[in-house]
Design a protein that fits this description.
Blueprint lengths: L2 H14 L9 H16 L3 E5 L5 H11 L4 E5 L2 H19 L9 E3 L9 H9 L11 H14 L16 H6 L20 H10 L3 E5 H9 L10 E5 L4 H8 L2 E3 L1 H14 L4 H18 L4 E2 L6 H23 L5 H21 L5 E8 L2 E8 L3 H10 L1 E6 L6 H4 L10 E3 L5 H4 E5 L11 H16 L3 E4 L3 H11 L9 E3 L5 H10 L4 E4 L16 E4 L10 H10 L3 H18 L10 E5 L10 H4 L8 E2 L2 H14 L3
Helix pairs in contact: 1-2, 1-3, 2-3, 3-4, 9-10, 11-12, 11-14, 12-13, 13-14, 18-19, 21-22
Length: 631
């Protein structure tokens, strides 16, 4: 064992000793050793760490033992909150009296998560370009409360607001990076909440961000994050999609009109901003002709010409703004907004063969998106300059290659979960139901769900791949599941409140969609049954995925669709066993798994569970658990 691995294991032992109900986890120790060795060699590493491994400490402990500066990028806010409220404070306490190990940490979010002091000042002095008497009364009330709170808060961060607020109110007191002129050109630059958070991050050893901010940092020439020699991508199975999104460009007529309005507020002459507003309206009309279509390259003439006109108008407006002598806040905001809009337009007009350009319709408005088919080129500088630790409970086949890492699936380090899945779980595959598109499926699906819930006595998370099936099933089953069994639906209340209600009522059932496939942690008897209505294959009408399928050719289904479905299924099944005392059944109600060649590939993430197609075995599993539980 290397000296670095020994040092990391010693720190792990010290940290675990501080935990209540401390227990040794061999998988966690294995991960610590592998990560410590990777930090020594400088080689990136991909670790599949099963549920319950304790992967957060598995990568944080060796990073701190090696004295490295790291950015930890996560997919979900829940994991960020866990790091901030549990794991990092625990490590901080374990290391604080050791000069060689003491460290500091910070949470950093995107600019629009923080109050803007300049905007608050404009509202207080009555110089706000959108007066509060022009907005709904409840929004104006919330804005005034936020202005008062600005004088009390030390963070200015949206999650610290001590009262409920709406998005409209928050947008009045915050700015996105597209509008912000930057610290050096802002009157409040030295006390800016975002800049204070960035200064704290620059002096920290561990900085926690989300995938989106990390992707934006790459797109903006490392503008947001401080230098770091280690990066951790936690829940890395989601990284490809997020990086694709941050590397994408989205344009709508409204976005261009908003940039034009910022120029109107800054310029005396209105001719050019008015012309840009007119072009924005023309873009809406042109894009409407191509709704739900992938565009050819080069772009259709009407789309190209409209975008080209907008690009030229942005250039001319920017020239006028830069010629102004006095730099007012309005002028600085307009310069930033018009400059970023010009960059977006130029990027679409120069779209390479790797970019897929398509038009979608969102709430009745046409939206043009240019997105990369592959993200390996975006991440190349990360792999070149940084030691990367990529980890998740599920690593889809082919992911390291698609991300641009020179690693094969055989190079993935797999550390075992501490749970005894053979005793704690059962995987039920319903091979006798109608196919998902069969006309007689709905009543038989509903009857099977009711039967499964009767075996478990409630405590079921029922997951659907479409809202329509969820609503139809919930409508049919509500009030028929048995005495004392409450049926909650995803849209009954906010997610946090919904999960709390589900945890508290051990006889309840929660019917939800893909948003609950991950980020749901309900240990104990509150969750004994996870039902998945069908294999969660990705949508067939997704323009970006369609382009990737075209590029993959005949192998597209097995190389694109199946790995995505398998990862999603594994994440959903992972909601079941969260502690060593948990038990339960995962039921997949899709008969295709008994007939199709892709069965093993789809089920790779749940292959550790005993499998059955016999409903009676599900009943026997729950009966046995019920009789073995202490009274």
């Amino acid at each position: 064992m290397t000296p670095s691995a020994k040092a990391a294991l010693a720190l792990l032992e010290k940290v675990v000793a501080r935990l209540s109900n401390a227990e040794s986890r061999s998988g966690q120790a294995d991960m610590v050793v592998h990560v410590a060795d990777a930090l020594t060699s400088g080689d990136s590493i991909v670790v599949q760490a099963g549920t319950g491994t304790g992967k957060t400490l598995g990568y944080l402990v060796p990073i701190l033992a090696a004295g490295r500066t790291a950015v930890v990028a996560t997919y979900t806010k829940a994991l960020q909150d866990q790091l901030a409220s549990v794991d990092l404070p625990l490590l901080e306490r374990a290391c604080e009296h050791d000069d060689d190990l003491a460290f500091s940490w910070a949470i950093l979010k995107g600019r629009n998560n923080y109050l803007c002091r300049q905007r608050v000042s404009e509202i207080e002095t009555g110089h706000d370009q959108l007066p509060l008497n022009d907005v709904p009364r409840d929004v104006a009330r919330d804005v005034r409360r936020l202005v008062e709170w600005a004088n009390e808060t030390t963070t200015g961060e949206i999650s610290d607001v001590p009262f409920p607020i709406g998005d409209s109110a928050w947008r009045k007191v915050s700015l996105g990076s597209d509008e912000c002129p930057g610290k050096a050109k802002c009157e409040f630059g030295e006390t800016c909440f975002t800049e204070v958070a960035r200064d704290k991050a620059r002096s920290a050893n561990v900085i926690v961000v989300n995938f989106t901010l990390y992707g934006l940092d790459l797109e903006q020439s490392r503008e947001f994050l401080p230098p770091h020699d280690v990066v951790v991508f936690d829940e890395v199975h989601e990284l490809e999609d997020v990086i694709s999104e941050t590397a994408s460009v989205t344009l709508t007529g409204r976005m261009i009109a908003t940039a034009a309005e910022s120029a109107r507020a800054a310029l005396t002459r209105q001719k050019l901003p008015n012309a840009l507003v007119k072009t924005a309206k023309e873009l809406d009309e042109v894009l409407g002709r191509y709704a739900a279509q992938r565009l050819s390259q080069p772009l259709p003439a009407d789309v190209h010409d409209t975008l080209h006109t907008a690009d030229e108008q942005c250039r001319m407006i920017l020239d006028e703004l830069e010629a102004l002598v006095n730099e007012t806040p309005e002028q600085l905001r307009a310069r930033s907004a018009i400059g970023r809009m010009g960059e977006a337009l130029a990027k679409v007009l120069a779209a390479s063969s790797n970019m897929v350009v398509f038009v979608t319709e969102v709430r009745g408005a046409a939206r043009l998106t240019a997105a990369p088919k592959r993200v390996d080129h975006v991440l190349a500088e990360v792999w070149d300059d940084t030691t990367a630790i990529l980890t998740s409970a599920t690593i889809p086949p082919g992911l390291p290659r698609r991300l641009g890492l020179g690693l094969s699936d055989d190079d993935i380090v797999r550390v075992a979960s501490p749970f005894d899945y053979k005793k704690q779980s059962l995987l039920y595959l319903a091979d006798d139901l109608p196919l998902p598109n069969a006309s007689d499926r709905a009543p038989k699906l509903q009857a099977r769900i009711r039967e499964l819930i009767s075996f478990s006595g409630g405590s079921a998370l029922v997951l659907f791949t479409s809202w329509s099936v969820l609503r139809d099933t919930a409508d049919a089953l509500d009030g028929t599941l048995g005495d004392g069994i409450t049926l909650y639906r995803q849209d009954d209340m906010p997610k946090k409140a919904l999960l709390e209600a589900f945890r508290d009522d051990h006889s309840s059932c929660l019917f939800a969609t893909r948003g609950f496939f991950q980020g749901v942690d309900v240990p104990g008897d509150a969750l004994r049954l996870v039902i998945i209505d069908k294999v969660p294959f990705p949508a067939l009408n997704d323009p970006l995925l369609d382009a990737r399928r075209d590029e993959a050719g005949d192998s597209a289904f097995m190389t694109i669709d199946v790995p995505m479905a398998a990862a999603s299924l594994a994440q959903a099944a992972g909601r079941l066993i969260r502690t060593a005392a948990d038990h339960g059944v995962v039921a997949v109600l899709d008969p295709r798994l008994g007939k199709k060649r892709y069965k093993n590939a789809v089920l790779f993430g749940v292959s550790h569970m005993p499998e059955t197609t016999r409903l009676v075995e599900v009943q026997e599993f729950f009966d046995k658990r019920a009789t073995s539980r202490p009274s």
